Each structure stands twice: as structure tokens, then as C-alpha cells.
């Protein structure tokens, strides 16, 4: 059996007015697993991701990272283990890409020689295909390049775990699958909030389905993206059929016919 890298027990989160936004969520993420957190808007995905990454304290329950309680890890120690790519990173537009990626080295400062540090930054830029843009200012990068820059900065942290909050936002369809392909090739343990269900089966080894603050399904993509679960949680239909040219199955998440009629008639 694989070692659990992340273990969450009975997590709960309640807003001041008493609304429960995370309710008794327990899950484990094994080494090298890529867990997709999916669910409708407001289901609690970002809240769960932030708690698993140690960016937010739960009101109830515990999280351990590599067998140690998250609450006991110092921020720099945590940052050497886990990197977070959030939705709202707004770097200073005048900072060069090289310096921006270099921010990922802060948790390691003083631990390696300058030559080793440069080597790590060069590798992070090369792996994300950004080598040729190293001298460019962050403000001059396209949305897709900025998204990859965030991944490069996270790689510079040399983490064992990568937390991603909707990393494919603002990307065109090809760039979406390229970015997730890149993340999958890293071989790290990954937890990613994803909205585009069509990308989940190829990317994720495991899926956690959230709805109304609860974990309603957790397992492999085939187990969790069943027509019943998808219909109940997202109110869309799952259709699977053979690819017309390739030896693989296509999965389409189709909105209900009644919805499209109402909208376009
Ligand atoms: N700090 C906060 N104050 C008030 N409400 C909050 C706070 N954080 C989260 N919520 C509420 O908790 C619920 C879950 O939010 P969360 O961002 O975790 O959902 P999500 O599944 O990531 O949503 P989305 O898919 O829309 O990004 C939402 O109703 C949100 O408005």
C-alpha cells in the first residue's frame, strides 16, 4: 500500500452566522496520486484545498502532511514540502520572470550554493517551457504564460506536494490540457481544484466530489464520474462512446436537453 502524504480527518468549517461550509470531510492522498477536487460552485472545494495546504485553519478536524500534523509545521518547513498555486496571484508587473520564479526559493534560503540555486531555477523554467522568457517582465506575459510561471515558481520550491486552485482558468482548450499534462509529468503528489470535468479522467488518478460542503464521492475517475453521481451533483449527463479515429473512449458531459431548449428557443 502507498504511503499517505496527506491525511485529513473529520474537517469542518462553519461561518460566523452558523453556515457550515465544510462538513466532516475525511480523505487520504497517497504518494504520487493526483487528486481532482470537483463539485459545483460554492461546494467547498477551495476551502478544503486551503485547509489541506495549511493556508486556512479548520474549525474542526486535523490534517497531517507526510505523517506530521500540519499545525506543528513551521511555515518555511511547510513551504519546503508543499507549494500552492492559487487563483489570485498578482505579481508586481515589473518583476522579471526569473526573479518571480526565484521567489519559490525563499523557504530554502541559505541552504544551497548560488550555483545550485540557479540550476534549480533553470530547471523550473525549462520544465515549464519558459526558458526563452526569463528576462521578460511579469506584466508582459500572456495569461497562459503567467499560469506556467506560477507552476515554475512552485517547482522552484522543490515541493513533494503541489496544490492547485483551478490552474486552467483563462486558458484555451489546448493550453488547458498541455498545462495538466505538464503537471502530471512532474510525478508529484497533486491536489487540484478543477472545474472542467472533461479534463479530469486523463489527468486525475483520484477524484473527490464535493457538494454542499460534504465529500459525496471519493475514488478513481471511473468510480466517481459515474452517470448517477454526475447527474446528482452537477445536473448534467455523462455520455461515453468510442473515439471515431483513436482507440480510446470519449466522455462528454452534456447539459440537459430541456436546458438547451429553454435557452435557445
Ligand atoms: N471567508 C468567507 N466568508 C464568507 N463565506 C465564505 C468564506 N469562505 C467561503 N465562503 C463560502 O463558503 C462556500 C464555499 O466556498 P468555496 O470557495 O470553498 O467553494 P468552491 O467550491 O471553491 O466554489 P467555486 O467553484 O465557486 O470557486 C461558498 O458559499 C462561499 O461563499
TrEMBL record:
Record GO terms (molecular function): ATP binding
General function of this protein: Part of the ABC transporter complex HmuTUV involved in hemin import. Responsible for energy coupling to the transport system.
SMART domains reported for this sequence: AAA
Identification of the protein by name: ABC transporter ATP-binding protein
Pfam families attached to this UniProt entry: ABC_tran (PF00005)
Family: Belongs to the ABC transporter superfamily.
Calcium among keywords: no
Keywords annotated in UniProt: ATP-binding, Nucleotide-binding, Translocase, Transport
UniProt-listed PROSITE patterns: ABC_TRANSPORTER_1, ABC_TRANSPORTER_2
Superkingdom of origin organism: Bacteria
Taxonomic placement: Bacteria, Pseudomonadati, Pseudomonadota, Alphaproteobacteria, Hyphomicrobiales
Domain ABC transporter: 6-237
Amino acid at each position: 500500500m502507498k504511503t499517505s502524504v496527506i491525511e485529513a480527518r473529520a474537517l469542518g468549517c462553519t461561518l460566523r452566522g452558523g453556515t457550515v461550509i465544510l462538513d466532516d470531510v475525511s480523505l487520504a492522498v497517497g504518494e504520487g496520486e493526483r487528486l481532482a477536487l470537483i463539485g459545483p460552485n460554492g461546494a467547498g472545494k477551495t476551502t478544503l484545498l486551503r485547509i489541506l495546504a495549511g493556508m486556512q485553519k479548520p474549525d474542526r478536524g486535523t490534517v497531517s502532511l507526510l505523517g506530521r500534523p500540519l499545525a506543528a509545521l513551521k511555515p518555511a518547513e511547510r513551504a519546503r514540502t508543499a507549494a500552492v498555486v492559487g487563483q489570485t496571484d498578482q505579481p508586481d508587473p515589473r518583476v522579471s520572470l526569473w526573479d518571480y520564479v526565484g521567489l519559490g526559493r525563499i523557504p530554502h534560503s541559505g541552504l544551497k550554493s548560488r550555483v545550485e540555486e540557479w540550476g534549480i531555477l533553470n530547471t523550473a523554467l525549462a520544465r515549464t517551457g519558459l526558458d526563452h522568457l526569463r528576462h521578460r517582465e511579469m506584466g508582459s506575459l500572456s495569461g497562459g504564460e503567467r499560469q506556467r510561471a506560477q507552476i515554475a515558481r512552485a517547482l522552484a520550491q522543490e515541493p513533494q506536494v503541489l496544490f492547485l486552485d483551478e490552474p486552467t482558468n483563462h486558458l484555451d482548450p489546448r493550453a488547458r490540457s498541455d498545462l495538466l499534462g505538464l503537471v502530471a509529468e512532474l510525478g508529484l503528489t497533486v491536489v487540484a481544484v478543477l472545474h472542467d470535468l472533461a479534463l479530469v479522467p486523463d489527468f486525475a488518478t483520484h477524484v473527490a466530489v464535493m457538494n454542499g460542503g460534504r465529500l459525496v464521492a471519493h475514488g478513481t475517475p471511473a468510480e466517481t464520474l459515474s452517470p448517477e453521481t454526475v447527474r446528482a451533483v452537477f445536473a448534467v449527463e455523462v455520455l461515453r462512446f468510442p473515439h471515431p479515429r483513436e482507440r480510446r473512449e470519449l466522455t462528454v458531459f452534456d447539459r440537459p436537453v430541456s436546458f438547451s431548449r429553454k435557452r435557445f428557443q
